[in-house]
């Protein structure tokens, strides 16, 4: 076997660590993309019963964005298996309790409901902010591209760049905004 083929062989069977920034991303649109890396669907050796998936680190899960009024309309169901143990939690309540749960539940429901799903979810690491343990960051070798661009806030733009933006209205000096 040539050296090039050995490198391809090693690359096919290796476990890669990916990082995904969830700032302003919809978890339900991002879940199929992350599922592809978690399960190893992009690898040529993929088989449903094979452990060929990769590790995925999701950062900034507290800054996710849901469409429209999904924060008030989306409901999560839980049952304790006792009589009267059913509870329904709104998305904003669940997010305020634990900012990682909405993303975790979205990816879990995007996967096929087989016996491998729980073991695959063990390779998913979600953090509410950018504080990731250093030993995990050393393993990261790929970044998953975001689906939607993150808008830039006006406070993040420098004063020189703000002055270059054309003004539509120039108020008089003595004008008072109400």
TrEMBL record:
Q: What top-level branch of life does the organism fall under?
A: Eukaryota
Alphabetized, the UniProt keywords read: Ribonucleoprotein, Ribosomal protein
Q: Which GO terms describe its biological process?
A: negative regulation of translation; translation
Gene3D superfamilies noted in UniProt: Ribosomal protein L13
Which InterPro entries would you find in this protein's record?
Ribosomal_uL13 (IPR005822), Ribosomal_uL13_bac-type (IPR005823), Ribosomal_uL13_sf (IPR036899)
Q: Name one Pfam family in it.
A: Ribosomal_L13
Entries under HAMAP family matching the protein: Ribosomal_uL13 (MF_01366)
**Name of protein:** 39S ribosomal protein L13, mitochondrial
Species of origin reads Apis mellifera (Honeybee)
User: Which lineage do the record's taxonomy fields give for this organism?
Assistant: Eukaryota, Metazoa, Ecdysozoa, Arthropoda, Hexapoda
């Amino acid at each position: 076997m040539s050296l090039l083929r050995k490198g391809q062989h090693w690359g096919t069977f290796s476990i890669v660590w990916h990082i995904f920034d969830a700032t302003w991303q919809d978890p339900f649109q991002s879940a199929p993309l992350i599922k592809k890396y978690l399960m190893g669907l992009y690898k040529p050796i993929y088989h449903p019963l094979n452990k060929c998936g990769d590790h995925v680190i999701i950062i900034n899960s507290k800054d996710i964005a849901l469409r429209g009024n999904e924060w008030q309309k989306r409901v999560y169901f839980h049952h304790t298996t006792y009589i009267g143990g059913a509870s329904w939690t709104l998305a904003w309540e669940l997010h305020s309790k634990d900012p990682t749960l909405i993303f975790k539940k979205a990816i879990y429901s995007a996967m096929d409901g087989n016996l491998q799903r729980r073991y695959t979810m063990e390779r998913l690491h979600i953090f509410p902010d950018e504080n990731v343990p250093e030993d995990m960051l050393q393993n990261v070798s790929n970044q998953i591209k975001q689906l939607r661009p993150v808008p830039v806030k006006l406070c993040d733009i420098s004063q020189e760049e703000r002055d270059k933006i054309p003004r539509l209205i120039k108020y008089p000096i003595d004008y008072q905004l109400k």
